[in-house]
Design goal:
The protein is an alpha/beta fold. The chain contains 14 helices and ten strands. Helix 2 packs across helix 11 and helix 11 packs across helix 12. About 40% of the residues are buried.
Length: about 325
């Protein structure tokens, strides 16, 4: 009889433990913060890729749904409609969106910046910049590629080109088919063109000496102003910085993720990975480059008056994790 009671007690304890574990599991599931992140198929975001692959976001209590777009410009169109929580995009599209959204947009980090990651892929008969005079060239109009074209045409005294608006994934095929003479965009799309038609295409130039192109992460200012939004953004940044430590050292892991999720070849991923400057900071170079961008935008009547960077960036997140990553903002420029 005593043995039977002991077994009943053990069974009851087991049921209670299982029940408690179920409650705990349910509580944990409920505590996970669900967010949608607008991303893209480019190795510039390899810190995010590695954070995702290694479960760092889940460890921070984030359940992230990644939604991919061919360019940040396209992603921002959907973001403007009220969808998504965090969006990845380039420098020019971000500033234009900030203006259009009446400043309800702030950068939370810089994933990457580089001049050499922006390229001019051209037909082989285009041997030098002046050969583009009067020719059809393409970019995702409204993206940083538009700024690159303007600087390239101006500094090389090309005069004028016929600009065609194409999404990024279409550019390599359009070049190989001869529909355009060149395209201005970020890697790995130049590498893709060389893979498709190495006998017809080459890399005419990079953006070195013209611009520094940026890949950034941003969120709505109104969301960041809430306790929940600020908390989620900080969790996201903490996990991303852990991913950064892996991304900058473990190319095979980055290449495997790029192949599995986006079908990118190892060569195309390596071409971008090698030249990524993973800044993840608001530093002097960032401030200088964005002031240069604002100056060009004023010349094109895309922005009026001075650009106040302090209204454009959210420093609380990075500063709370690593204060060295945030320098004081400069005066409006």
């Amino acid at each position: 009889m005593g043995s039977s009671r002991r077994w009943q007690s053990l069974a009851a304890a087991g049921i209670a433990a299982a029940f408690a574990a179920g409650i705990a599991a349910g509580a944990t599931a409920q505590e996970m913060k669900k967010i949608t992140v607008f991303s893209g198929p480019v190795p510039k975001y390899d810190a995010v890729w590695m954070a995702d692959a290694n479960g760092f976001y889940k460890a921070e209590g984030l359940d992230i749904a990644f939604r991919d777009f061919p360019s940040g410009t396209t992603a921002l169109q959907t973001f403007m409609a009220g969808q998504g929580d965090i969006v990845f995009n380039g420098d020019l599209p971000g500033v234009r969106h900030w203006i259009a959204a009446k400043k309800d947009y702030k950068l939370i980090t810089v994933f990457e910046r580089s001049a050499t990651s922006y390229i001019v892929a051209a037909r082989k008969e285009i041997a030098k910049p002046i050969d583009l005079k009067g020719k059809i060239v393409a970019t995702r109009v409204g993206s940083t590629g538009s700024w690159f074209i303007a600087e390239f045409v101006n500094k090389n005294n090309i005069g004028s080109v016929d600009i065609k608006n194409l999404d990024t994934q279409v550019l390599p095929t359009a070049l190989c088919q001869g529909d355009i003479s060149a395209f201005f965009i970020w890697q790995p799309f130049g590498s893709r063109a060389l893979e498709i038609c190495p006998d017809k295409a080459h890399i005419l130039a990079t953006a070195e000496g013209y611009i520094n192109g940026y890949a950034v992460g941003a969120a709505r200012a109104s969301w960041l102003a809430t306790p929940e939004g600020a908390d989620i953004a900080k969790r996201f940044l903490r996990a991303t910085l852990k991913g950064l430590a892996i991304a900058e050292k473990d190319f095979p892991a980055v290449a495997a993720y790029a192949k599995a999720k986006y079908g990118l070849s190892e060569a195309a991923t390596k071409a971008d990975w090698d030249i990524n400057i993973r800044a993840n900071a608001f530093d002097k170079v960032f401030y200088s480059d964005y002031c240069n961008l604002a100056e060009w935008m004023r010349s094109e009547k895309l922005i009026e008056g001075k650009f106040d960077i302090s209204e454009f960036i959210w420093t609380d997140g990075l500063a709370s994790i690593d204060p060295k990553r945030v320098l004081p903002t400069p005066p409006p420029c």
